[in-house]
Amino acid sequence: MKGKKKIIAFTLLIISLLIAIGFTIVSLLDNKAKEVKVAKRFVEKLQKMDIIDTKLNVEKIEFKSVDKVINKNSKTQYIVVGENLGINLDSKYVVTGFSEKVKEDISPDSIIDKDNAKILAEEYVSKITNEKFEFKEVREVKEEEKKSNTYTIAFYKYVKDYPCYDNEIVVNINRTSGKLQSYTNQSINKVKYNIKKNIDLEEAKNISIEYFSKLNIKLQIVKEPLLSVTLRVDGEFELSYVVDLNVITNDGKIDKYKLFINAESGEVVNRTSELIQDSTSN
């Protein structure tokens, strides 16, 4: 009897394990199917809104999910590819990126200008996401990228009703067709925010001027300071004024500075610079 009981118990255990394995396999297949379905719907949405170049029938494209992204710093967890298309999704199956490879020769006569590219980019982003965003810049093309067939356009994402300097939506617009060629929109991880404001815009300008006053050099505030959420070295986000200045040094060189001024204390918490030109060379 004891032998029969052991056999029955062992058999039940095997059956239970097989059922558990079956459920696990079904669950994994369902999850993989889910990311493919979401990616497919996203491409269909872009097609219907006439945002992308591809004229392929999405139903006939064989989309497949590649291995899960192993990167702790990346919000992207899944990558789905099909034909010349790629779609990234986060752990909640929200699309964080899209790209379409387009082989095309650049004809100088057919290139759209930056202003039109900016308008198109704003239109596309507003159709893709309901998030609040603000234009940041059309990225300058580096010398080695002069033959690029896209404009790269960045937008600030909003955090706590302010543009976030370190969190962007970035799109690439095809320079000849004006269509969307890539889209990146990753949210930052949950962090601490210090959103306090004790100084106004004029005070921020004065602090910037005072910061360089002891150096006895000429300077110019290039544009209106941006009140935005910025990332500190310790990983906390705070409200800061970002002030762009041109500084003419004593040896005649022009440096482009960005000062980050804490909106609560007025402290200059960060500074970046780059050489623009030699002012004596003209």
UniProtKB/TrEMBL annotation:
Pfam families attached to this UniProt entry: DUF4901 (PF16244)
Domain YcdB/YcdC repeated stretches: 87-184
Annotated transmembrane regions: 7-29
Keyword list, A-Z: Membrane, Transmembrane, Transmembrane helix
Top-level taxon in the UniProt lineage: Bacteria
InterPro entries: YcdB/YcdC_rep_domain
Protein name: YcdB/YcdC repeated domain-containing protein
Organism: Clostridium gasigenes
Origin organism lineage: Bacteria, Bacillati, Bacillota, Clostridia, Eubacteriales
